[in-house]
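Priority: medium. Attachment 1 of 2:
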C-alpha cells in the first residue's frame, strides 16, 4: 500500500512537470517591427516599394504600407519633408499583413524629382503607428553638384534671380550662376533652354561659396539693361573644375 502511494505521487509530479513545460507562459515579449525595403525603379513610370513585417502576433495590424514625400527640382512646386509620416502621401498595401516581406508596384509618384523620401509604416488595431527607417532615392546619381533656379523671373527691373544648392556632389565646383535668354517683342527669337552662349551671371565658387540647402541665395541680373522685357527664360548652371557644365533641370519662365 505504501509503495502504491509513492508511485501515485511520482506520477502526479511527472504530469505537473509536463504541464509546466507545455504551458504558454504569457504573451510574446518581442516588440513588433516594421522595416523599409529599398525602392526600385522598374521603369520611369513604375516604382516598386517593399515593407518587411516581423514579430507581429495574430491580427495586430490594421493597415500597412509606405509613406513618402517628393522633393522636386522646382523647390516651389510643393512642400516636402525628409521625415514623412501619415500626414503626407501614403501607399496602402492591400495584401494580408503577415510576417515577412511585402512588395507593391505603383505608378511613379513623380517622373522628374530631386529626391523621394520614404519609409514603411504599420497602423495597429489599438491605433498605434509604427514606422520603419527613412530612406530616399535621388534621381540624379552622377555625383555632380545639383544647383537649381528658384522662383519665377520678373519682366521689369529690378530683375531678381535666386538659386539653391541641393547637393554638393563629389566633383569640385569652379563657377556657378544662372544663364538667361529674353526678348523685348513677341516676334523676336528666344532660347527656351538658355546656355552659357546666352547671357549669364557667373560667380567663382572659390570667392563666393554657397552652402547646401537653406533658403537659397538671391542676386540681381544686373547686366540686363532693358527696363522691361516681353519674355524671359532663366536656369542655373554649375561649371566643374574639369570643364564640365551642368545645367539645372528647372527652367524659370515668364511672359507678358
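Attachment 2 of 2:
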Amino acid at each position: 500500500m505504501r509503495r502504491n502511494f509513492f508511485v501515485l505521487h511520482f506520477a502526479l509530479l511527472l504530469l505537473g512537470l509536463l504541464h509546466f513545460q507545455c504551458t504558454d507562459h504569457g504573451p510574446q515579449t518581442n516588440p513588433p517591427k516594421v522595416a523599409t525595403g529599398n525602392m526600385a525603379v522598374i521603369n520611369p513610370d513604375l516604382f516598386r516599394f517593399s515593407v518587411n513585417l516581423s514579430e507581429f502576433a495574430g491580427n495586430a495590424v490594421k493597415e500597412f504600407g509606405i509613406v513618402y514625400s517628393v522633393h522636386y527640382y522646382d523647390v516651389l512646386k510643393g512642400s516636402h519633408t525628409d521625415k514623412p509620416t501619415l500626414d503626407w502621401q501614403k501607399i496602402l498595401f492591400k495584401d494580408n499583413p503577415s510576417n515577412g516581406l511585402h512588395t507593391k508596384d505603383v505608378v511613379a509618384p513623380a517622373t522628374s524629382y530631386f529626391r523621394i523620401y520614404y519609409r514603411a509604416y504599420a497602423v495597429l488595431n489599438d491605433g498605434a503607428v509604427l514606422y520603419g527607417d527613412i530612406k530616399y532615392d535621388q534621381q540624379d546619381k552622377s555625383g555632380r553638384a545639383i544647383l537649381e533656379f528658384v522662383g519665377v523671373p520678373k519682366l521689369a527691373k529690378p530683375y531678381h534671380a535666386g538659386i539653391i544648392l541641393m547637393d554638393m556632389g563629389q566633383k569640385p565646383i569652379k563657377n556657378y550662376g544662372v544663364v538667361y535668354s529674353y526678348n523685348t517683342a513677341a516676334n523676336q527669337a528666344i532660347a527656351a533652354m538658355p546656355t552659357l552662349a546666352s547671357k549669364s551671371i557667373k560667380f567663382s565658387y572659390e570667392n563666393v561659396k554657397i552652402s547646401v540647402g537653406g533658403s537659397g541665395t538671391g542676386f540681381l541680373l544686373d547686366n540686363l539693361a532693358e527696363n522691361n522685357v516681353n519674355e524671359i527664360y532663366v536656369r542655373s548652371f554649375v561649371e566643374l573644375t574639369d570643364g564640365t557644365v551642368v545645367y539645372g533641370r528647372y527652367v524659370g519662365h515668364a511672359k507678358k
